[in-house]
Write a structure and sequence with these properties.
Elements (H helix, E strand, L loop, with lengths): L1 E2 L2 E4 L2 E4 L4 E2 L1 E11 L2 E10 L6 E7 L6 H4 L1 H9 L3 E5 L13 H5 L3 H4 L4 H18 L3 E11 L1 H12 L3 E7 L5 H6 L20 H8 L4 E4 L9 H17 L2
Parallel strand pairs: 7-8, 7-9, 9-10, 10-11
Antiparallel strand pairs: 1-4, 2-3, 5-6, 6-8
Helix pairs in contact: 5-6, 6-8, 8-9
């Protein structure tokens, strides 16, 4: 992929130079479980001088995930990161069911110990396995981020894999009380929940991430992740980070 720099004259573009290569995209897939194939785009900056830091980018639940989120992968590549952008089950090219209870009423998922949160976390961990084997990647310098559903995975993946050195969750933070009291559960997704044997809330997951760098970002008018609930989680997790110094 290339960009063209120039100035507008008479409705056309007068290039200042030839096309400048910035990064390349590799289309690939990997097998996170037997016969579960996760598709991805790998953004690799051109002319790397050595091993680069890497980002695992987890998409939200758009139908055209790799297309809708390509600006994020491109931005990281232009900043010098290798970026692996992966899709979720049921959306994009990964066939199967992600919204079992939400769309199909399959509440037996939970009684059988299955949650979409768990499998998407595993897909992310297997994506990190792929990144650490890439010759372009510094295996000790890997982060993860994502938006919406991908913002939720940005909690689960670093909680489950200590190789993640930093994480940023965008529009993926709330409390169980808010899901019920604010009725945001009506518009929510199955990947927001885990099999909650020990009656945890999201701040407890944050305790598994601490003290690694972690960003919580939310919007004022999010209909799924209430900003007040996100602030509550932030204040709870901040106390954990303070306790750990």
């Amino acid at each position: 992929f290339h960009i063209q720099r120039g100035t507008l004259r008479g409705g056309g573009v007068v290039p200042e130079s030839h096309h400048l290569p910035i990064y390349r995209i590799e289309k690939l897939y990997y097998e996170s479980l037997p016969k579960l194939y996760v598709d991805a785009n790998l953004y690799v900056p051109k002319d790397l001088k050595g091993k680069a830091p890497a980002i695992l980018y987890t998409c939200g639940h758009n139908q055209n995930q790799k297309g809708d989120y390509q600006a994020h992968g491109r931005c990281f590549a232009e900043l010098g990161f290798v970026c692996l952008l992966i899709e979720t089950i049921q959306r994009g090219e990964v066939k199967g069911y992600h919204h079992g209870p939400y769309e199909e009423g399959w509440f037996q998922w939970y009684s059988r110990g299955y949650t979409a949160a768990g499998i998407e976390m595993l897909n992310g961990i297997r994506g990190i396995d792929l990144l650490v084997e890439r010759p372009e990647v510094d295996p000790g310098n890997i982060g993860t981020t994502g938006l919406s559903g991908g913002g939720s995975y940005s909690w689960w993946i670093p909680a489950g894999d200590e190789r993640v050195k930093a994480s940023a969750s965008l529009c993926g933070t709330s409390t169980l009380a808010s899901y019920i009291y604010d009725r945001t559960v009506d518009r929510d997704c199955d990947c927001q929940y885990w099999i909650n044997t020990y009656l945890w809330d999201q701040a407890d997951v944050g305790a598994l991430i601490a003290p690694r760098p972690f960003i919580i970002a939310s919007t004022m008018l999010d209909e799924v992740f209430s900003v007040n609930a996100a602030r509550e989680v932030y204040n709870q997790v901040a106390r954990i980070y303070k306790m750990l110094g």
